[in-house]
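Re: beginner question about structure tokens

> Can someone show what the tokenized structure looks like for a real chain? I only ever see the sequence side.

Sure, here's an example I had lying around. Input first:
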Amino acid sequence: MKPYAMCLLLLGATSATAAERLDMSDPDQRQFCANLTLLIGQMAMESHGKELRAQDTDTYKKIVEVGPGTELADALARFSDQMRGRMKPELVGPYSTYSLCLGIAEELVTGPVADEIGQVCNSAPAGEELTCMRLFFEDLAPAAASESGTKAQAQSATSEE
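And the corresponding structure tokens:
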């Protein structure tokens, strides 16, 4: 599975046109998708911690600014608000992947990119849809690790001064 799978899952469920505009041969667009995925979890954590509606968070505003528009951000915010108190905020992003995989499998999520997304989800053995989520996060891990490595280097440089 490629790192953009989650991005396709999310965009395919909320904005098929945006998903079709993605060029996954472009490293910048792949990074955009990875960043967008991380923002989803961040929005859930922020709204939970401050007891705000997800649409009132700074992260929501950032998704609107850098994402394909308010349609995606609104869908993510609604999902985040629905899950508040029902699951740990850090699980909202992974759970949305799992839900969309199942939604496509059950034909609850449809659209021009649903077939492609379904193929990504169906790479997991039957009954093991969580593999879809696990593979995505394994692919995302190098990007997250390099990001945290940069922060660690900056902290190290600061502490040496």
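Each token stands for a local structural state, so reading them left to right follows the chain. The chain has a mean pLDDT of 57.
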